[in-house]
Amino acid sequence: MTASSDVEQSVPASEEAGADLPTEVSYWRYALRQIGYRLGQLIILLIGVTTLLFFLLRLTGDPALILVGDLASEEAIAQVRSFYGLDRPIIVQYFLFLGQAVQLNFGTSLQSFRPALELVLEHLPATLVLAAAAVSINISAAFTFGVWLGYRPERPERRVGLIAVLISQGIPGFVVGLILIQFFAVKWGVLPSIGIDGPKSLILPAITLASFLLPRVLRLTASNVDQAMRRDYVRTARASGARSGTVLRRHAMPNAMIGTVALIGVQFGFLLSGSLITESLFAWPGIGLLLIEAVRGLDYPVVQASVAVIAVLVFVVNMITDLLFPLIDPRLRSQRA
Amino acid sequence: MTDVKPDVERIGVTRRSIGMLYRNMSGLLIAGTIGAVITVVLAIWGVQISGFDPAQQSLADRLLPPGTDGHIFGTDQLGRDVFARVAVGFRWSVPVGILSAALACSIGVVTGLLAAWNTGWIRSALTRLMDIAISFPYLVLAVAIVSVVGHGFWALVFTLGLVSWVSFARVVYAETLKLKEREYLIAARLIGNSTFRIISRYLARGLRHTIAVMYAFIFADLLVAEAGLSFLGLGAPLGEPSWGNMLATSREYLFIAPWMMYVPAAAVILVVLTANLLGDGLIERWGRGTIQN
Questions:
Q1: How far apart are CA A291 and CA A302, in angstroms?
Q2: Cβ neighbours of B250 in A, within 8 Å
Q3: Span B226-253, pLDDT tens digits
Q4: Cα A48 to Cα A43, B62, B142, distances in angstroms
């Protein structure tokens, strides 16, 4: 590390001169700085969100009443209050809560009496599988249909396709899900629409979740491919006699698809919003469904833990996107490093 | 010769201005305007057009398919006219969208302006705040907040407005930074206008297109968010004719009464599509500026 930073210092012009060919060192420095920056963001976000929820929950209702029910006697309520520390001043309670949250202890679920975080982590794999499937659908649709739409967009059939994409942007994801259920599960009865029962039951939820992002991804891909095809380097490649398929695949697409993958990375949080609706529509046992049920049952430790885990999940994906892009696209290295 | 011209202008002014309006509008804006007119008509006269009382139950007329007994779009599980209920839904869902987007717009514009106009720690704190807030899925936050503040019209408006201001703030911030360097604003500052006057007269002029376009898109997003929350049982109270509520109920009747799903779904799609078309049409007309995707 010391040797490499000496090199950096001894060549002060490396920023400009080496912008096209950054050394391994500058990437790692960029990566470390980026991780540090994002980690700081994550910590502020976690503190902000949990604090907001903590005070909202305490100010609007007595958690002890939720715990024991409205019909319990005064003594029982007082007992529960002192057991959970709810008789102390709210500021003291807040710092106790923060202290426990730092140790990854969000309390016990009020419904299943298990540690809230454990419960949330149990539901994590289902959400990850669903999100991964939705992202793969988006990427493969972008590489096929999106590229097709953007390559020669003046042809009539592609115009119709683009209009269809534009219209589909107005269809909310949960309506897509309901229509899919109506046809594939109810009318034709070919695919299951509830819970996890073999790989077949992933199909409808994955398509539904994918549809939250798909129109935007297709639009961006089409317009990027179209723009790339008008660039000078494509004209040069054409002029030098490359076949049109080669021009598209080797010259236009690599530049156009960076934007697509970036969009999916940036919009991952939005995809998680969609998973709330998708999971409860298909009774898919992920974090989204858990959060909705916890909200309905006023199970606030689980609400806190789910929101925290979702924040970490978004952080990890943003992190990966940040670190991956300078590797894919050399231009970003000189911009950000 | 020169006196004749104004008269000619005046004679044809009404007809020509309508023609000009039409010629200047792109296909997107025309389609969006038609959608907006349909939305307004259905919101105001929809119930009369349907010819039924949206609250009137009739067990004898349960789950009638579209077209029977004058029910254009059929009836629901309690015998209520689906068209009438969806028409009342316009008066719930569209105002929630309009007001929450307006709240998001106000918070976002103020934050964006503060961040762009100030330098130093206020800017760095606010841009950091925006960076953090944009990464968090706002529906997750809305679900958590709604669980606490309760259902109801105003609770929804405030929750949705409070969780979605960031997109406005970021665009206003970026646009203001750009405008600050423009000659007319520099000139406005040099001749000694007060900051308030610069912002309200000169900057507002430069920002209004961007804000209008963003407003259309955010309105569409929040309309869908409201329908989604209500669909999850966390938005509109159970009795309210929100489209999300109707869609949630329709789930149990998909097999025997799919129209209970298709009609409210069509209403959501109509309004969202209208807002998106208007937004895209305005972008086409005014240019994209700092608005992404």
A1: 7
A2: 178
A3: 999 999 888 888 778 889 888 988 888 8
A4: 8, 49, 15
